[in-house]
């Protein structure tokens, strides 16, 4: 199980292009670190770098599956919660991103949508 302390190293090992992002952005907790991963994913989508975005989404799914409760909460409440305004705000983005969103994250997103309308 990945802990909050292991999170920066795990991210940097999984995606070397993110090396140093936690230090650069002074990210010390799981929520801030996941926010930086979201920022990188969003900028990759904006640049139409779908390979990088796909890697980020896969990394987020890995973190959700292997992370402790703090990391899982950060993925749900920061990363997945931001899908609507970060990825799905235009029809063009929605189609491209839906093709690369892992099933686990998409199911979390759907659950959040359903629960938000109660």
Report on the structure:
The protein is built from eight helices and no strands. 26% of the residues are buried. With 118 residues, it is mainly α. The protein has helices at 7-14, 21-24, 30-46, 50-66, 69-79, 83-86, 91-98, 103-116. Helices cover 70% and strands 0% of the residues. It has one domain (7-116).
Largest sheet: none
Share in β-strands: under 5%
What overall form do the CA principal axes indicate? globular
- N-to-C span: 33 Å
Question: Can you tell me the residue ranges where pLDDT is under 50 for at least 5 consecutive residues?
Answer: none
Q: What class do helices, strands and sheet pairing give?
A: mainly alpha
What number of structural domains do the residues give?
Answer: 1
User: Helical amount among residues, as a percent range?
Assistant: over 70%
**Extended strand count:** 0
Average of per-residue pLDDT values: 89
How many H/I helical runs?
Answer: 8
The radius of gyration over CA amounts to 14 Å
Instruction: Give the assembly state of these chains.
Output: single chain
């Amino acid at each position: 199980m990945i802990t909050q302390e292991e999170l920066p190293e795990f991210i940097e090992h999984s995606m070397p292009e993110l090396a140093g992002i936690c230090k650069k952005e002074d990210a010390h907790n799981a929520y801030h670190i996941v926010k930086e991963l979201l920022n990188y994913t969003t900028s990759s989508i904006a640049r139409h770098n779908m390979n990088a975005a796909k890697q980020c989404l896969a990394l987020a799914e890995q973190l959700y599956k292997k992370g402790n409760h703090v990391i899982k909460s950060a993925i749900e409440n920061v990363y997945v919660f931001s899908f609507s305004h970060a990825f799905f705000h235009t029809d063009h983005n929605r189609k491209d991103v839906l093709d690369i969103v892992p099933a686990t994250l998409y199911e979390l997103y759907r659950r959040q949508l359903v629960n938000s309308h109660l």
